[in-house]
Write a structure and sequence with these properties.
This protein is mainly alpha-helical and about 100 residues long. It has helices at about 20-25, 30-40, 45-55, 70-90; strands at about 10, 55.
Length: about 100
């Protein structure tokens, strides 16, 4: 885990966009705790996408050649996941 002053998306600890990993690194806590908070807070999928669009990407020591991912694919997967969560919540009567 790297110490830093700014809130940035993580290149090493991510599932979709690296938002939870970046928040965890900035707060010096486990990313699992941050992910659990994002799972159980109802507004978090929208907040996650907004943070993913606004947060800068962390500069990697190894550069982009080690782990190159398509940003479009990642954003599309995040959107599909968010839509799926809303559909499930709506069908369960939670929204």
């Amino acid at each position: 885990m790297m110490k830093r002053n700014r809130l940035m998306r993580s290149n090493s600890d991510y599932v979709f966009l690296g938002v939870c990993g970046g928040i965890a690194e900035a707060l010096l806590t486990s990313s699992i705790i941050v992910r659990l908070v994002f799972i159980f807070v109802p507004v978090s999928p929208i907040l996650y996408l907004i943070l993913g669009a606004l947060m800068e990407k962390e500069d990697s020591f190894y550069g982009d050649s080690v782990r190159k991912k398509s940003t479009f694919k990642t954003a599309l997967l995040a959107f599909i996941f968010t839509a799926l969560v809303f559909v499930i919540f709506f069908n369960l009567g939670l929204l």
